[in-house]
């Protein structure tokens, strides 16, 4: 059998096979995913274009297709002609066709990181990334998710985490990390507990942590041990990420988010604490209750909120002199602008580093690094992603900081790429790493 | 004249009714129940979204494009002047001379701002590329409304055309982008409620 026959067709090849029945089904999907805020937003855009300068894609390439209003209006045209219009209008030709789908993939996946900066700058307050997600859901229903992102979601769906780490690998990795941690700290009591029933909270990590960034996992363990926290990992469900958030496929997103909640129930744990992850925070904290139609919300927090609690209660002591270099902070869009965790990481850094300098702009107005929205997994858009990251790179350069801290692993990866691409000469570190480095404990 | 005034009233009420039906149709798409534990308060977010959040220094887009923002404010101020004049003309309330002068000024400045926005849309390449025929049509219709109102403050012979254009405008509103006159509030409420609940708005501290 030829390699061509074995290879799964990419999305542009799959586009050629889309039928009129598929398109009709896609319209039904659009009608099904639209909710009241989206329906109002899709009828409120006045195409003023004030959103343009808020978008890092547009600021980089000055291309019409990168303007948030343009992306929104790709969906508006189909919505108005096929969903919202009176009966007869819906029978008008046009709306969703293969050329439109191609334009949707390019704009909704290739020119958007779902960062939400446009929303805050929209005079009408349209939640543009939420609407973009609905467009992505339509594309997902047609099998038009870019392959890298699609395979990441599929890996998470079938293996339990987006990196395909087996349960055995996970348990073994945590065991040797624990061993290393005891050797490093000289503290035989320090644990990275697994499957501890009745713990106060279940901690979920980014699979990149055990695979590539074990320092952030051990950093969390040090801080939680020093604060005397009663926590646990789960051997079955540990993935904080939910890449289906990026595809708009709420059914799969619910499935993935539901696993952590099931693990909480199995271990009789009341709270869920999330590692440094932007979209993972929004997914598990804010969106999962909707996806899962939960009757009452779970207690879900970011690890940053836990560390701040411990700092304020004097359960943790940090020595900022252990981090003497100038540090700036990149605000992950999902965590900050869309998630509401804005000051906690600042409070931690101000205790953990000697010289903290803010970027301009910062907090909810900070620019996206370009790594969100599933961009890191979509190789066909990587050149554009790096180019759009120029805006963030310039922000970093202006701070003259030596270290860029950020509480999100996707941002860490993107910033590391930008560091190399634009020769920024900075170190890219997670907030937890810096906090753990500054930790003053009896065993050190 | 009386027939024309009645037509204005009927078209205005019909426009409002049609807008309300459209808005309710949009709401009918429903909102899923959100049981996530709020971090902030939706009501505070809504208050911000409809109040302080509209001020020019609260949004980067307004700060960066203060002239466009200002033109928009003047344009909408002119529209409110035109609506006030329309109400007075329709119900036949004689306005004091001072009020007429204020309205006249507001209408003139508003119309100029509207024309400026129209020109910007037509001349700037990206604005032109983003725009549709409806964007120009809506702007021209409103500009004519303001200009007719301005003329009506100068001479009684312009009153009938002003009322006539009002009827056209009311007939158009529910079907085009000008429906944002009502949808705006709903959009801002959804925006404020979401970001208020998540503790993002109102901002605790000003961004640098």
How far the N terminus sits from the C terminus of chain B, by CA atoms, comes to 57 Å
Ranges of chain B where pLDDT stays below 50 over 5 or more residues in a row are none
- Which residues of chain A form runs of ≥5 with pLDDT under 50? none
Largest sheet of chain B: none
- Rg of chain A (CA only): 22 Å
Features:
heterodimer, A: 444 residues, 4-stranded parallel beta sheet, 8 strands, 6% strand, B: 208 residues, mainly alpha, globular
Write a structural description:
The complex is a heterodimer of chains A (444) and B (208). By secondary structure, chain A is α/β, with parallel strands linked by helices. Chain A has 23 helices and eight strands. In chain A, strands 2-1-3-4 form a four-stranded parallel sheet. In chain A, β7, α22 (409-421) and β8 form a beta-alpha-beta unit. In chain A, α7 (98-109) crosses α9 (128-141) and α17 (303-312) crosses α19 (344-352). Chain A is globular, with a radius of gyration of 22 Å. The mean pLDDT of chain A is 94. Classes of the chains: A alpha/beta (444), B mainly alpha (208).
Secondary structure elements and pairings:
The complex is a heterodimer of chains A (444) and B (208).
Chain A: H1 3-6, H2 11-16, H3 20-33, H4 36-41, H5 56-61, H6 68-84, H7 98-109, H8 117-121, H9 128-141, H10 147-159, H11 167-185, E1 201-204, H12 208-211, H13 214-226, E2 231-232, H14 244-247, H15 250-266, E3 271-274, H16 278-291, E4 299-302, H17 303-312, E5 326-329, H18 333-336, H19 344-352, E6 355-357, H20 382-388, H21 390-399, E7 403-405, H22 409-421, E8 427-429, H23 431-437
Parallel strand pairs in A: 1-2, 1-3, 3-4, 5-6, 5-7, 7-8
Chain B: H1 2-27, H2 42-50, H3 60-64, H4 66-91, H5 97-123, H6 125-130, H7 133-152, H8 159-172, H9 180-197
């Amino acid at each position: 059998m030829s390699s061509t026959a074995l290879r799964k067709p990419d999305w542009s090849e799959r586009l050629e096979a889309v039928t009129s029945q598929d398109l009709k089904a896609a319209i039904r999907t659009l009608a099904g995913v639209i909710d009241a805020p989206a329906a109002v937003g899709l009828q409120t855009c006045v195409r003023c274009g004030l959103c343009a300068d808020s978008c890092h894609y547009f600021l980089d390439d000055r291309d019409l297709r990168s303007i948030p209003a343009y992306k929104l209006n790709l969906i508006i045209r189909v919505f108005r002609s096929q969903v919202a219009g009176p009966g007869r209008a819906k029978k008008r030709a046009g709306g969703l066709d293969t050329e439109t789908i191609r334009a949707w993939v390019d704009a909704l996946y290739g020119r958007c990181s779902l960062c939400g900066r446009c929303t805050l700058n929209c005079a009408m307050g349209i939640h543009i990334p939420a609407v973009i997600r609905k467009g992505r859901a339509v594309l997902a229903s047609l099998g038009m998710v870019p392959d890298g992102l699609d395979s990441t979601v599929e890996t998470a769906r079938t293996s339990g985490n987006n990196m395909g780490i087996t349960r055995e690998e996970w348990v073994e990795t945590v065991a040797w990390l624990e061993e290393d941690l005891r050797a490093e700290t000289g503290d035989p009591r320090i644990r990275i507990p697994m499957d501890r029933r009745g713990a106060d909270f279940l901690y979920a990590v980014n699979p990149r942590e055990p695979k590539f960034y074990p320092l952030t996992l051990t950093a969390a363990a040090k801080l939680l041990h020093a604060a005397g926290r009663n926590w646990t990992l789960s051997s079955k469900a540990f993935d904080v990420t939910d890449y289906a958030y990026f595809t708009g496929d709420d059914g799969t997103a619910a499935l993935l988010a539901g696993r952590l909640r099931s693990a909480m129930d199995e271990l009789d744990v009341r709270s869920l604490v999330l590692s440094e992850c932007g979209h993972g925070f929004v997914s598990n904290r804010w969106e999962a209750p909707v996806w899962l139609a939960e009757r009452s919300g779970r207690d879900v927090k970011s690890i940053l909120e836990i560390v701040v609690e411990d700092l304020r209660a004097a359960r943790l002591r940090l020595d900022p002199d252990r981090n003497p270099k100038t540090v700036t902070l990149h605000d992950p869009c999902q965590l900050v602008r869309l998630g509401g965790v804005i000051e906690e990481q600042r409070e931690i850094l101000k205790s953990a580093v000697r010289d903290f300098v803010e970027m301009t702009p910062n907090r909810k107005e900070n620019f996206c690094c370009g790594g969100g929205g599933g961009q890191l997994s979509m190789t066909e858009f990587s050149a554009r992603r790096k180019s759009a990251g120029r805006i963030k790179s310039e922000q970093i350069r202006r701070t003259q900081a030596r270290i860029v801290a950020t509480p999100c692993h996707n941002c860490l990866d993107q910033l590391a790429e930008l560091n190399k691409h634009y020769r920024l000469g900075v170190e890219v570190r997670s907030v937890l790493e810096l906090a753990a480095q500054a930790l003053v404990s009896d065993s050190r | 004249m009386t027939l024309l005034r009645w037509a204005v009233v009927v078209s205005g009420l019909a426009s409002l009714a049609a807008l309300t039906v459209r808005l309710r149709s949009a709401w009918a798409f429903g909102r899923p129940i959100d049981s996530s534990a709020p971090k902030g308060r939706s009501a505070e977010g809504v208050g911000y979204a409809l109040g302080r959040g509209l001020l020019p220094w609260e949004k980067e887009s307004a700060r960066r494009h203060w002239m466009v923002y200002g033109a928009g404010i003047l344009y909408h101020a002119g529209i409110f002047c035109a609506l006030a004049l329309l109400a007075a003309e329709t119900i036949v309330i004689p306005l004091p001379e001072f009020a007429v002068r204020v309205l006249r000024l507001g209408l003139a400045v508003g119309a100029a701002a509207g024309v400026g926005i129209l020109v910007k849309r037509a001349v700037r390449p990206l604005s032109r590329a983003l725009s549709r025929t409806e964007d120009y049509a809506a702007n021209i219709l409103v500009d004519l409304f303001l200009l007719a109102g301005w003329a009506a403050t100068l001479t009684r012979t312009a009153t009938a055309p002003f009322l006539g254009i009002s009827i056209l405008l009311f007939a158009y509103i529910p079907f085009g982008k000008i429906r944002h006159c009502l949808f705006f509030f709903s959009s801002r409420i959804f925006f404020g409620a979401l970001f208020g609940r998540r503790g993002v708005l109102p901002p605790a501290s000003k961004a640098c």
